Amino acid sequence: MTRRLFPVLLLFAAGCTTISPLGKASLTGDVQQVRSLLDKGADLNRGKKYKPTWDSPATYMSPMRLAIEAGHADVVRLLLEKGASVDQNTTDSRTPLGYAVAKGDMTIVKLLLEKGADINATGSDGTPSLTFADTVEMAELLLARGADVNKFGARANDFAVVVGISNYSDLPEARFAERDANAVAAHMEALGIPRRNIIHLAGAKAGRSALVKYLNSWLPKNVKPSSRVYFYFSGHGAPDPSTGEAYLVPWDGDPNFLADTAYPIKRLYSRLNSLKAKEVLVALDACFSGAGGRSVLAQGARPLITKVDMGEAPAGKLTLLTASSGSQITTTLENQGHGIFTYFFLKGLNGEAQDGRGRITATGLFNYLKPKVQDEARRQNRDQAPTFHTSSDLIIRSR
Question: What pLDDT does residue 164 have?
């Protein structure tokens, strides 16, 4: 007996409910018996009354629901071929598609969709199937098939903070940084993150106070244990000349007073890792050498800090992609109007980094973009090697 079947049969054995012959055959996967009972006129869409616990409301476990519960795709297919309603409802809130999504059964989900299941239908209490998608693969499948993410929020608990600063209040330009961030913000929405969950800070709106309030207050108040959080920054970085500690430079940052006007990388990692989110992806298109590109240095300091302290991404939920190592300079693609790192980051998200199963993982994305960034930088007679850290390879999107 399979483990997934045992809890349902235990309820029957305990006397919580009775089960029709068709329901029993569907639950056990007896295709021949199901076909025989249907030929004799068994009810396709309704089962016997089922009470999961003594104090819960009664529901009706249809033969299809029982087949889905036990993972019998062949029985589900037969029931549908014999006329079972693909969107039949029960009194416990879920459509067949909702049950299959909750079970994580991709085979049955695809079968139901192929047979015309309404991907945006709700159960009896208004709960949509997408609410039960608890993996990225499942959410991406449903989104690709036309699920209304803004209405039903398949990724309603995911958040993104996207920062891009080209023209600083009193610093050299970080070329194309705001264009980078605009494109990344659009990609975050394309991933299925609701627009209201995407904070996009650009130019003068990306001052230090904005970074502090969204990282220190807004994210902790909104993020949930099931959330994935994305943080992207495109603009200047800076090293402290005395310690080598790396900082993100906001619009109003001053490299002469980093501790008071900028945001330390170490604090960024600590804040994001302390969120109660399930996963956090950080992508930084900045450099911290102080030697040009997307980096600045305190006036009068040496033009190159020999050892930049980027900090170590804390073990746990953080996945980190940076445009270059601490001592290098980031470069741009003039003909594309993007930083090299962001350009290939976006191309990877658009499908270039897909693996054989149609997925884009963080590791796959890095393996795709690193050699391309290095090659383009060499064409400009520079060295630029993106860096990567992860404790568990997250799936960014799937087919």
Answer: 95
